[in-house]
Amino acid sequence: MKLSQLPAAFDLATESKGHFPYMFNHPDNYGKVLSTLPPIEFYEPKYMGVKQWYEENRETEFNFDEEIVRYCKNDVQILSEALVKFIESTTIASYIMFVLKQEHIKTPIVAYAPENGWPGRKNSSFALKFLLWIEHQNPGMALKHKLRAGGEHVIECKRRTYAVDGYDPETGHVYEIHECMYHGCPKCYLNREQTSPHNKNQTMAELYDYTILKDDDIRDSGFTLHVHWECDIREELRKNAEMKHFFINCNYTHQLRPREAMYGGRTQQFKSFVVADEEYTIENYDYCSLYPFINIRGAKYPIGAPLRITDYFDEIVPGQPLPYHGLAFCDILPPKNCPIPVLPVRVDSKLIFPLCKKCSTSKRKTPCKHTKVTDRYLTGVWCTDEINLAISEGYQLLKYHEVWDWPEKSWFQGGFYEKFMSPLLKMKHESSGWPEEGMSEEKKQAHIKTIHDTDHVKMDPENVKKNPALRSLAKLFLNSTWGKFAQNPCETETKLLPTSHGLKIAQFFDEQGYEPKCFKDWGENHVLVSRRPFKESLQTACFTDIVYEALTTCGARIKLYEAMKRVGAENLIYC
């Protein structure tokens, strides 16, 4: 939205944004005072629509220094007031979610999907990587831990039983990896009375005391205990290049995290330069309302919680679809030659579709020469529908790590999405008007039938009138319907605080579960501070289910892939 539109849109008290001659803003004109406004061409009338205002005010005196200060202050005031109004208002996505909950989701359908998956006990990726490093340093050692069949080993001690991080069945040695935040490390958390971010009823001192009590109980029960604190491991990582390389390349050390299956839309360049001539044309095709189509009838969505499978998986049959329906955390080997790759991965926060893991991480620009499976296979979380498409294109499933499976009877199509979105889709089509001027009645009926066959909505010919504002509103609601389910709780929190509020600033950074991101002077009397929650401490946002949105974007990518196949890889320029 343009800055000039904000006062009316938010009903601001500040007067509407005025006009300023942008092209007149040059050092040669600083300090100038004119008896009239500068010539109209300095206002860029072609873009700004100022002709009527200019004719009414052209004889007004123009003081450059005063006008530019007034204009800039006015811009800042409008933007500030609009931001305050926006922050205090509900968002479209929040409003839609409210309507869905109140009017359309009447029965228990949407499940709670933990942001970090269902881990059982909270073994972090960091701790598991260190256990694997211990094994790497001791060839032949096979520790029992969360990633092995049966999960963590449980030991009987004098006080109680414990599920331990690692256990060596050959020697009976126990390995415990104490993450500083979860165990109240006195070196890292100096404020011992600070409450834990995971249990507000426990202080960091109490966490540490319990940890020491547990360690003593294990030793007193006859076990040899090896304790490693996170801060000590990180210090070793800083010094040991081999260990650091091992940690970076250790792919599977956590449970299935559903947000990792949320890849978003596909954009990809196939050719850098194309010339149209008498024989070849450049064509552009676009899907109309693709995400609403996927929500209403292009994808199926699960009801309730999945069956979580971590071992005893069904046998992998080469070339055959998966026997599961949902999400799969797995290793998969792309074919060496696939004109249109299927599976997405993220590298440095960028979405790519590689055929070789090592080439993608090293950003190799020359032809791939890797032949080892260990160099080429991909590890990730994908929807099973997309994995099945990949298998049909020559990908090979190598190994399951974890699967979220819903039985076929637990899936629905349309449902609350269709009830809410169909009237909006009807509104969008009607407010788009007829596709051609002066259409015959026969052509109009054919157009109505096409829309009905495609989107299952019945348009009223009397209501088909071009209305850009109504169409824009309907489109905004349609495209905002699915997004709230994918709300990301890992957001940076930023505040502007007076420097005199030293205690509040210290408390902002001292709260457990967050990492500091920014501390900057802001003028003479304020500081800009920001923090971001650690991934391990994330709490799922209220009434969200990232699985729904992973399936939505997956369905859209599959639909796009089908179109790309019809066009042919040799003809694709960009998608």
UniProtKB/TrEMBL annotation:
<protein>
    <recommendedName>
        <fullName>DNA-directed DNA polymerase</fullName>
        <ecNumber>2.7.7.7</ecNumber>
    </recommendedName>
</protein>
<dbReference type="InterPro" id="IPR012337">
    <property type="entry name" value="RNaseH-like_sf"/>
</dbReference>
<keyword id="KW-0548">Nucleotidyltransferase</keyword>
<keyword id="KW-0239">DNA-directed DNA polymerase</keyword>
<dbReference type="Pfam" id="PF03175">
    <property type="entry name" value="DNA_pol_B_2"/>
</dbReference>
<dbReference type="GO" id="GO:0003677">
    <property type="term" value="F:DNA binding"/>
</dbReference>
<feature type="domain" description="DNA-directed DNA polymerase family B mitochondria/virus">
    <location>
        <begin position="259"/>
        <end position="430"/>
    </location>
</feature>
<dbReference type="GO" id="GO:0003887">
    <property type="term" value="F:DNA-directed DNA polymerase activity"/>
</dbReference>
<dbReference type="GO" id="GO:0042575">
    <property type="term" value="C:DNA polymerase complex"/>
</dbReference>
<feature type="domain" description="DNA-directed DNA polymerase family B mitochondria/virus">
    <location>
        <begin position="458"/>
        <end position="500"/>
    </location>
</feature>
<feature type="domain" description="DNA-directed DNA polymerase family B mitochondria/virus">
    <location>
        <begin position="2"/>
        <end position="91"/>
    </location>
</feature>
<dbReference type="InterPro" id="IPR043502">
    <property type="entry name" value="DNA/RNA_pol_sf"/>
</dbReference>
<dbReference type="GO" id="GO:0000166">
    <property type="term" value="F:nucleotide binding"/>
</dbReference>
<keyword id="KW-0808">Transferase</keyword>
<dbReference type="GO" id="GO:0006260">
    <property type="term" value="P:DNA replication"/>
</dbReference>
<keyword id="KW-0238">DNA-binding</keyword>
<keyword id="KW-0235">DNA replication</keyword>
<comment type="similarity">
    <text>Belongs to the DNA polymerase type-B family.</text>
</comment>
<dbReference type="InterPro" id="IPR004868">
    <property type="entry name" value="DNA-dir_DNA_pol_B_mt/vir"/>
</dbReference>
